[in-house]
């Protein structure tokens, strides 16, 4: 596997990142362990988690499985989303960042987090406070790098300038949704990342399975698919998206690859992209998409995809958890 530099960090990471949202629910610990070990054997060296995945169970599983292999992999986790009923159990305040980090370290069973993401931007907290809290965690050795997820470009640039002013650590990458159904990152986020040397680690390359050919009717989602798990996922599965997914799957099969492989490879070939997160529910899902890392695309492939969804455009919104995106 050919490794890529992750923005200004200098870290060399695999083009495929193992996402762990399914670990703990619906994927049990034993299957999760098989997936993790197979991913590492395939050369994946970055595992992406969050404190809210399966109520923290995802982090616990990752920590237990990697106890004897911690040195082989970079682990990320995130802070922002609500973890409790209290008024301060969410957001990017100094209080919540420090509290959440300590809890994540305990669940992961590790002394440090390789990359700590702000899961979303927090308009209610000055970024000076947020960055000061992250700086403290870096100084304490509990966090090695910081990053942003699904942030508007202007907030990321503001954070970089604040970091310059006060000597705080800077974001090394952005983690936005990026797939053929929602290409709006190409308008501002991708150019911003390229200008400021930030890596891009894209999430949902398969558009919740729509681009993998798993749906034929948005009103009748097969049991066990991502759209049946949470309402916020179901909102992202529209008939317009499914119609594109059907055409995309037909093209992939004609090319002799699976739709999931082509969808993932398409993201990996986009300018500025470092890696793409794959979130397998089963070991079979993982092994079936691994060839995407080595799949070569040509101008004909890009032309077909651009005809389905033009650059910078959107068919189905994957920013529906972000009020800032119109």
Short description:
By secondary structure, the chain is of the alpha/beta class. 37% of the residues lie in helices and 13% in strands.
Task: Give a written overview of the molecule.
The chain is α/β, with parallel strands linked by helices and 326 residues long. The protein has a single domain (4-209, 261-296), classed as Alpha-Beta Barrel (TIM Barrel). Helices cover 37% and strands 13% of the residues. The chain is built from 11 helices and 10 strands. The strands form 2 sheets. Strands 3-4-5-6-7-8-9-10 form an 8-stranded parallel β-barrel, surrounded by 5 helices. Helix 2 (57-65) crosses helix 3 and helix 8 (239-255) packs across helix 9 (259-268). The radius of gyration is 19 Å and the shape is globular. The model has no long low-confidence stretch (mean pLDDT 97).
* N- to C-terminal distance: 37 Å
Strand fraction: 5-15%
**Major sheet characteristics:** 8 strands, parallel, barrel
- Give me the side-by-side strand order of the main sheet: 3-4-5-6-7-8-9-10
Instruction: Assign the structural class, choosing from mainly alpha, mainly beta, alpha/beta, alpha+beta, or little secondary structure.
Output: alpha/beta
Query: If you average the pLDDT, what whole number results?
Result: 97
Count, helices: 11
